[in-house]
Amino acid sequence: IKKIGVMTSGGDAPGMNAAIRSVVRTCAYYNIECVGIYRGFEGIMEGDFRPMDARSVKGIVNKGGTVLKSARSKEFRTPEGRKIAHDQLKNAQVDALVVIGGDGTFNGGLVFNKEFDFPVIGIPCTIDNDIFGTTHTIGFDTALNTVVDCIDKIRDTASSHNRLFFVEVMGRDVGHIALNAGVGAGAEEILIPEENLGLDRLLESLHRSKRSGKSSSIVVVAEGDKIGKNVFELKDYVEANMDEYDVRVSVLGHMQRGGSPSCFDRVLASRMGVKAVETLLEGKTNYMVGLLNEKIELTHLREAIKGQSKIDRELLRVSEIMTT
Ligand code: F6P
Fold first, then answer.
1. C or N: which end of the chain has fewer Cβ atoms within 10 Å?
2. pLDDT tens digits, residue range 76-129?
3. Rounded CA gap, 241 and 35, in Å?
4. Dmax (CA) of the chain
5. Is 127 annotated as a binding residue?
6. What is the value of ipTM here, to two decimals?
7. pTM
8. Is the beta carbon of 218 within 6 A of some atom in ligand 1?
9. Per the annotation, does 72 bind a ligand?
């Protein structure tokens, strides 16, 4: 392998830049050429490549977002699109890819490898933490800190006005942000897609909180929660069924994806970038680098995107005890 392409794809996450930097610097360390690919798979098809050396990634370890930009590509999902992408990589003499992103990114990498036998290694980077084969994806820790910080602030105003707040956090299909940030911020109730609490139990729990002397409450809701109602409908429902609370809603939205990465995410990204390049140099392909038992380990990309739930049952139990 003489030239590695690095790209970011899908929803951005804090720490993406630290991962790019690590890949670029590891290539420089091993005297391999590195090209940055702009806007993910879209950029491969357009041949939007720029050479990157160790100095070109200076001053980005602490920056949110991604200097390589990100996109979700429809055309790359077609065989024609992937053929164009392969031709572009061949023309530029790129002979391996490091793809930084989530399950959509890894899926694209796997299909591409299957069709063209092109070496691909994945680095998990999404605030959702919905990837198997790693306890933490890059960006998750920063997003948790952002959410906890916001909920602390919401708590101030909630308690001043004796209000109940529904706080919606990201997590299209998973409740990792909701569960962890909910426990960290001392939420009274946490609603996640992996568990269906049900509306009756929610009401019962809110009544219980009130009876136990709480004057304000925070309910953290993952956007993909399966209770069947969005936060605004939940507000209406609770207001229609309980008059003890004055209810408000706060949707945290994309602020969860921004900001300077935490030290944990920067270190994780640096470790993963080194391992990704070294794995390619060992002649391996179709692996994702992940953090398991504090060590950087490889998991096949197919396993990483299998879609199993890795919700922490022990933390669920802790949250139940904490919300009594
Ligand atoms: O990156 C994953 C995610 O953060 C989801 O939790 C959320 O539903 C989605 O991105 C939002 O994506 P978009 O930027 O396309 O609105």
1. C
2. 999 999 999 999 999 999 999 999 999 999 999 999 999 999 999 999 999 999
3. 58
4. 70
5. yes
6. 0.96
7. 0.97
8. no
9. yes
